[in-house]
């Protein structure tokens, strides 16, 4: 648990791994790549619902745990953000990042919500070989984009991914119980709705 609070005492803008990552991002920077990375950032708003709908279409009961895990990951990640309160790197003009301080997101940086939510959800693609490959390729690009655009430190992304893998693994391990629980709730809500009609 103490590891979670390390960012309270370490200035992420001074860590050599973060400076190296920003330098690597600048080395490959181009207007086209910047546009692609900017468009990929909100793509989870399409990808996650599409994946959930596909799971429903396939009658995959794991869709319940997929949704529960996604919500849980977001809540845990955002709670940590509010505790740690690390400013985003793009607010530090001295780093000379691609995103200007005026265009920088107002929320906190550690951990990356994109990494915290999206990484662990890859567990739920194990039954779909080609979707899994596409999901992981998309995930890598999205997470690269968070550092490339200067909205997260590399350490924010690594911490978010690690957090995500642990929580999603636990949810995935208990998926049968979570699926049964969620299915009972959904069935009761549907039955109640039908009775009221």
Give a written overview of the molecule.
The chain has eight helices and no strands. It has 197 residues and is mainly α. It has one domain (15-196): Vanadium-containing Chloroperoxidase, domain 1, CATH 1.20.144. Helix 2 (31-40) crosses helix 6, helix 3 (44-57) packs antiparallel against helix 4 (62-84) and helix 4 (62-84) packs antiparallel against helix 7 (154-173). The longest helix is centred in the middle third of the chain and has 23 residues, at 62-84. The chain is elongated, with a radius of gyration of 19 Å. Mean pLDDT is 83; it is low at 1-7.
Please supply descriptive tags for the structure shown above.
197 residues, mainly alpha, Vanadium-containing Chloroperoxidase, domain 1, 64% helix, elongated, disordered N terminus
